[in-house]
Design goal:
With 245 residues, the protein is of the alpha+beta class. Helices cover 20% and strands 46% of the residues. It has one domain. The strands form two sheets. Strands 1-3-4-8-14-10-11-12 form an eight-stranded antiparallel sheet. Strands 2, 5, 6, 7, 9, 13 and 15 form a seven-stranded antiparallel sheet that branches. It starts with a helix and ends with a helix.
């Protein structure tokens, strides 16, 4: 009798363990990418590739390069699926040296893509943007690294929220920003990447940033005063750039 109970208990634990692992396991599927089910380059995605991370589909990518340097090599920038959080999957952008400026050069790259849930999964209710790796070389006078990401309704007609992360040499930094919005089955993401120096001796690089898309309520922290000042400085820089153009 005792052996039967132990045997039954072991089977029960195995079933629970299998069920839990099945529910928590993540699926990564890429289509049209050379590194199958591992990562895609931005170039591949712009050319029509797509990726599935858990129950979210990332597709319909486009890029608009307004840099003052040679066009950004999109084949170097890798988009890594992040499937480690079941209800908060996303992607990491690794630049591999493609987002570096020298002197007064400017990288100004817009990326647009669509994120949608599949299979009746919970809808998207927010996202988080993180500036995870950047560099200002020794001897820099100044420099800016910034990523802005807008979440729009799938038709692109209404803005659901805006996120900004940045680092300004010797001045300010806001490395994480998040938004919450009404639940959506699909959203359009418009991200802008800005990398620039302020002087001929400056070298500035954006190495990586991440963006996740939540399927449960997220809390949006209030930004401190100094990052607000940083956002104002970046806004002024953008206004001056548009005037010059």
């Amino acid at each position: 009798m005792k052996n039967s109970l132990v045997h039954a208990f072991a089977i029960g634990m195995a079933i629970v363990s299998w069920t839990y692992s099945s529910e928590s396991s993540a699926a990564i599927v890429t289509s049209g990418c050379a590194s199958a089910n591992q990562f895609c380059t931005v170039d591949e995605l712009v050319r029509g590739a797509s990726m599935m991370v858990n129950d979210k589909l990332f597709e319909n990518w486009s890029a608009d390069d307004a840099s003052t340097v040679a066009p950004v090599d999109l084949s170097l920038i890798r988009v890594i699926p992040l499937d480690d959080q079941a209800l908060n999957p996303g992607v990491e952008f690794l630049s591999n040296g493609a987002l570096v400026t020298h002197g007064l050069e400017q990288i100004d790259l817009d990326l647009t893509f669509r994120v949608s849930v599949v299979g009746g999964a919970a809808r998207i209710v927010g996202s988080a943007l993180e500036l995870s790796a950047f560099e200002f070389s020794a001897g820099n006078v100044g420099g800016i690294v910034a990523v802005s990401s807008d979440a729009l309704t799938a038709n692109g007609l209404a803005v659901l929220g805006e996120q900004d992360v940045f680092a300004i040499h010797s001045l300010d930094a806001l490395l994480f920003d998040s938004i919450a919005h009404l639940s959506q089955a699909a959203i359009l993401v418009e991200a802008n990447i800005l990398v620039t120096g302020d002087d001929s001796v400056d070298t500035v690089a954006l190495n990586s940033f991440t963006q996740r898309f939540a399927q449960r309520a997220v809390q949006v922290p209030e930004p401190p005063t100094l990052p607000i000042l940083g956002l104002a400085l970046i806004g002024l820089w953008r206004m001056n750039r548009r005037t010059l153009l």
